[in-house]
Write a structure and sequence with these properties.
Blueprint: H1 3-12, H2 28-33, E1 41-46, E2 49-55, H3 60-71, H4 83-103, H5 107-121, H6 126-141
Antiparallel strand pairs: 1-2
């Protein structure tokens, strides 16, 4: 389903981004060593190290943004959550906070509900992006 999009992007960014295709049926050992359990899986490597992994079909705009970022030498983009995933996480977090409030539960339940709600919007938080980018820079140098 995404193969035509990837082939077009590989052609558009020829010489800037390398795209390697692996047939799952012909290379089961390679998939096992890369821990690929879902198809399609797109793995981004930089300097021989995996930097990002996308599992499942992604939109053409997500793939184009990824190729553009990689072609310009930038960091690969985080996998974006779909609207349904965001709403489920937010709803579950709100439900847990409601249970904590009604049952006068332990404070850890409230903390967990906050983490769950934050996980629905973390990729849009500029503070989170700044902290994680700096952490990646520091750990890459070490």
């Amino acid at each position: 389903m995404i193969k035509p999009k990837l082939e077009k992007l590989a052609h558009d960014y020829d010489g800037q981004v390398d795209l390697w295709e692996v047939n799952a049926d012909d290379n089961p050992e390679l998939l096992k060593s890369l821990r690929v359990y879902g198809i399609p899986t797109l793995i981004v490597f930089r300097d021989g190290q995996e930097t990002q992994r996308y599992v499942g079909a992604k939109s053409g705009s997500t793939l184009k943004s990824l190729f553009e970022t990689l072609a310009n030498g930038g960091e690969s983009l985080p996998a974006s959550l779909g609207m349904a995933d965001r709403l489920i996480r937010l709803g579950a977090g709100i439900a847990l906070a409601g249970i904590w409030y009604v049952a006068e539960g332990h404070w850890l339940l409230l903390v967990f509900s906050g983490i769950l709600m934050f996980s629905a919007v973390y990729d849009r938080c500029p503070i989170w992006k700044a902290v994680t980018t700096r952490f990646k820079q520091l750990t890459r140098k070490a």
